[in-house]
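Write out structure tokens for Transmembrane protein 163.
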Amino acid sequence: MPVFGNLCKTLQWILRTIWSQNRKARGRGLLESSTRLKPHEAQNYRKKALWVSWFSIIVTLALAVAAFTVSVMRYSASAFGFAFDAILDVLSSAIVLWRYSNAAAVHSAYREYIACVILGVIFLLSSICIVVKAIHDLSTKLLPEVDDFLFSVSILSGILCSILAVLKFMLGKVLTSRALITDGFNSLVGGVMGFSILLSAEVFKHNAAVWYLDGSIGVLIGLTIFAYGVKLLIDMVPRARQTRHYEMFE
């Protein structure tokens, strides 16, 4: 019985120690990943996040140029929406680069929350532009044109953005990074928009009466981005205020 009692006391001490460490980590403004990852593991994932972000910037910038070209040449609201989302993806990846540029701040909650607040603002501004453009095209009954260039851009955009989204979601989960997950959500939206360009173009090709599908998808995606941006700001602004005394904004 004394052995059992000592064992219980030991277990209680271990549990209290773990709880105390987690509470101190949160008190210092650290993310949950600080208690789960070893220092070399955290730095390894940080470098992977930087590489994925750089790759995302290069790819989405090229896709943005192509999509803007399609939007102008073929009067596609979905292509314009994707191009805007691609630019948003470039900006969000750049913010993630800033977020993980400091090796010592890999677990910084404050840096994380500030990055998310900036992403939320960008989401709101971009969504307004997408929705306004789509509504304008719907009100003027702007009809899209279909060709091989539009088809190629749609397929390439959908595939590449979907791959980037998966990579960002995986890294965001390991590093418990809302900024990375948000960047992944943006890439996912880009993938959906890429395939939606193809869908609306093919539908219009076979049934000209459904000319409004392209603009409607643009409105829907714009509203989705707006809602996500609002949710992000509601969640992150209070947290940024709570943790600002732990770390100065760099």
